[in-house]
Amino acid sequence: MGDMKLYFCGSICGGRADLPVYQRIVKKLQTYGTVLTEHVSSSDITEKGEDVIAIGEKAIHDRDVEWLQESDVIVAEVTQPSLGVGYEIGRAVTMKKRILCLFRPSSGRRLSAMIRGAADGQMFVVRDYVEEDLENILEEYFRKLKKP
Predict the structure, then answer these.
(1) How confident is the model at residue 94 (pLDDT cuts 50, 70, 90)?
(2) Rounded distance, CA 56 to CA 79, Å?
(3) Under DSSP, is residue 127 helix (H, G, I), strand (E, B) or coil?
(4) Rg of the Cα trace of the chain?
(5) How many CA atoms lie less than 13 Å away from 103 in the CB half-sphere?
(6) CA distances for 72 relative to 5, 23, 89, 99, 104, angstroms
(7) CA quadruple 15, 110, 118, 75: dihedral positive or negative?
(8) In angstroms, rounded to a whole number, what is the distance separating the alpha carbons of residues 119 and 127?
(9) Which of 36, 76, 127, 139 is the most buried (most CB within 10 A)?
(10) Which H or E run contains 138?
(11) What's the mean per-residue pLDDT of the chain?
């Protein structure tokens, strides 16, 4: 199970306020496999995003879509609204990927009905959480995955 490929989605241009949470998620995910999008949790990336000038927007998009295709599981932190994250989730649904969306109600925000309404409890799971429970929720999710 340690050879799983995982795709983590978190807000970049939408705001970096949840960076410490992203770092915790990625750290935990790394115990289950390779996190292809590890850079999302990097404190070097600001709201301006990756070095778009050096890489180019199309290259970033194409690389990320390729990573989505390679991934076994997509984990998205969806508390901070982000067009990029919403787009990644939509693409992942079309690819019939396993998706876990994590949302903190304590943020005072409401999660988009397009995300909460997509949940089927099987391939697409939405979990509300408080920060203290983050690791436990991930453990529970991946434990269930391992069961045939």
Answers:
(1) very high
(2) 27
(3) strand
(4) 14
(5) 19
(6) 5, 20, 13, 9, 24
(7) positive
(8) 10
(9) 76
(10) helix 134-146
(11) 92
Are 93 and 101 in contact by the 8 Å Cβ rule? The answer is no
* pLDDT tens track for 8-44: 999 988 887 889 999 999 999 999 999 999 888 888 8
Contact between residue 80 and residue 20 where contact means Cβ atoms under 8 Å apart: no
Task: Report the 3 state secondary structure along 59-115.
Answer: HHHHHHHHHHHHCCEEEEECCCCCHHHHHHHHHHHHCCCEEEEEECHHHCCCCCHHH
Give SS3 for 144: helix
User: pTM for the whole thing?
Assistant: 0.93
